[in-house]
Amino acid sequence: MQIHADWIGRYPQAVQAAVYFSCLEALQNVAKYAQASSVSVTLAERDHTLLFAVTDDGVGFDPVTAQHGSGLQGIADRLGALDGPVSVTSSPGHGTTIEGQLPVRAEVPA
Length: 110
Fold this sequence. Notes:
It is built from two helices and five strands, in the order βαββαββ. With about 110 residues, it is an alpha+beta fold. The N and C termini lie far apart (about 35 Å).
């Protein structure tokens, strides 16, 4: 597994928890379904938006015809509660990327 993180700061607890648990769920999906040989997690902040992506090189799936399980719905619900979207990009034989974003402002240490 590779982790790529641009300089990111501290964020409100709800934002940090949402990103953490979303990435955790995405990684659990990779372990359960993807049959991947590699996975990467990318974190970045751009224009007051915290971005994350979990990308694998697994078997992929057709997101149009596949039913989203409770894990992907949980990610969508968690991010949606904080005004953030999630997207799933995949195709059979070409892996999967789950991306999310949340509007943020880094917290300034006291």
